[in-house]
Write a structure and sequence with these properties.
The protein is of the alpha+beta class. Helix content is about 40%, strand content about 20%. The structure holds guanosine-5'-triphosphate (GTP) and zinc ion.
Amino acid sequence: MSDQNKENLIEELGDNHIATSYENPIREDAFEMSDDEKIEKIKGHVHQIMETLGMDMTDDSLQGTPNRVAKMYVNETFGGLHPNKKPKASTFQNNYKYGEMLVEKNITVYSTCEHHLLPIIGRAHVAYISSGRVIGLSKMNRIVNYYAKRPQVQERLTMQVVKELQKALKTEDVACVIDAKHLCVNSRGINDIESSTVTSEYGGKFKDENVRRELLNYIKLDTKF
Ligand SMILES: Nc1nc2c(ncn2[C@@H]2O[C@H](COP(=O)(O)OP(=O)(O)OP(=O)(O)O)[C@@H](O)[C@H]2O)c(=O)[nH]1
Ligand SMILES: [Zn+2]
């Protein structure tokens, strides 16, 4: 889809938090409950799931599991749902006039498939060409991590990373490629342990075939994870 078409789609859907093409479908009242309240509620649900499965929830080893899972969901696995967790993307002036692409490659991705709530494990490769600003390297890892910590589909995660960096760097010239294993494909269902999923989003100059080839040459998608 062209950038213009994407912009039109966003305009059509409205620029709010409810299911635009780039946003996760998060309800408007999602942040009315505190994290502690969410943990308490989720804890009860996990307890029920385990009990329904027939587990003895008085067992010493199982007793703490509902609380553990609830804390993990709210603070870690899905910690990127809250906008106040968005990392600050410090940028600096490109005083040294570096004009080539910069690639932050092999960024570890731990995300969660929104269809099965199973892990997505892989690598993200992020690149940009400066239009006058440069960004702290670690901020690219942090942005990937922030959007990964949500129930996700890989396509959306890839686009969110690009959009966020385009905003921070004030340029269209940003790209992201993600190669990841979905445990819902690898460890259940079709049980194909070898397959992985590659997604990409190329903005601005990265739509040019030569620029794209240069990026793909740097990242060589042979990483094992
Ligand atoms: N496009 C896309 N699909 C995904 C992603 N993660 C998981 N899926 C797929 O989501 C689909 C959900 O399909 P369903 O038929 O509703 O679920 P299911 O019966 O468990 O399907 P199987 O996984 O084939 O057993 C599956 O084909 C998954 O492989 C993702 O990031 N992007
Ligand atoms: Zn899945």
